[in-house]
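Objective 1b: paired records.
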Amino acid sequence: SVDCSFSRGVCDWKQDADDDFDWNPADRERGDGYYMAVPAFVGHKKDMGRLRLLLTDLKPKSSYCLIFSYRLAGEKVGKLRVFLANKKTAPVWEENKGKDERWRTGKIEIFQGAETTNSVTFESERGKGKTGEIGVDNVILISGLCPED
């Protein structure tokens, strides 16, 4: 498994230059490292911020599971979407509101066919709300299918 959480810096994360705002590091509550976040007050409604994880050396014709923690805190904070590079048109995962301020776990299966996925993009879309944030943390890539809960 490959740990792409932001405190270790093993993976290649890139801010998208063509979006409206950047994701920024935010300190974890317990003080051990940080996560990436977009505060609700950044930008204007419908603005987008994209953070791209570049994947190298994924073997063709094999499966991977991308597991990550995410949080949508605050009222009308916006949307969090995940795109795979070879399926640019539609998100493979989307969440548009949090039931509460808690962190949740997202899982995405990545099948390497003839076309290999060479990046995963986390896209934050600004909502109407002015409080809260959208956060992503603990991004891990494991080989094989996603485990059941």
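Objective 1b, second protein:
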Amino acid sequence: LSICSRTVEPLEYYRRFLKENCRPDGRELGEFRTTTVNIGKCLCSITTADGSALVKLGNTTVICGVKAELAAPAVDSANKGYIVPNVELPSLCAERFRSGPPGEEAQAASQFIADVIENSQMIVKEDLCIANGKLAWVLYCDIICLDYDGNLLDASVFALLAALKNVQLPLVTINEETGLSEVNLKQKNPLIIRKHPVATSFAIFDDTLLIVDPTAEEEDLATGTVTIVTDEEGRLCSVHKPGGSPLTGAKLQDCITRAITRHKEVKKLIDKVIKSITPK
């Protein structure tokens, strides 16, 4: 197979590989790229964050920093804190992105992350309340893509979960005499994470063929994509399908089954890394 054919007719080039049940990068159709995660202060670039993580999915590299601040709860939800996710796709991560205000893809990714947090109940907002109607935590979750090579959503959900697992919040009380908040930095507690959502993305080729963990090139050539989010109980938290080829019920069920298997791999990886950085 010549390089020329990949440049001139990339789809035909891919189809030749797909017929042999493999991909140009050597992976099988159901094979994920090498996945690595680093958690915590080893990421010198964001030591100011209360929790941080860096995830690599093949060449796609995403960093997440979580910053916790104190604020008054909203009047209509006096017993809840806030979680504010934001996905950034700077021009440095790929030629397709431009400097300036967030583009459509970054906005869609931010909304997807917000939906995953809400639907999975990974963090219950009531757990972020310190004093009803008076004080609550706000978690600003900034997810920045450093290198884009497809499958942004899987990497972003993984980085968010790993960073949140790393957050330690100081003990905050309200002084009854003065009404002021008092922060005890010596006594810190981890966030209560109730569910561990993991995203698994697929590209659809020629309306029928499914491949997992697509690269940027594969996403461009695909006739559609679908992202399945599951938790540790195998519960379906979200199905994200932005247009493209329709999926039969059987194909969708196949995606969900594969997503549940992938969840176990990712959870095992996070647990292993957290164990390695936890003081004995």
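The radius of gyration is 21 Å. The helical segments are 3-8, 10-19, 104-120, 152-165, 216-221, 249-277.
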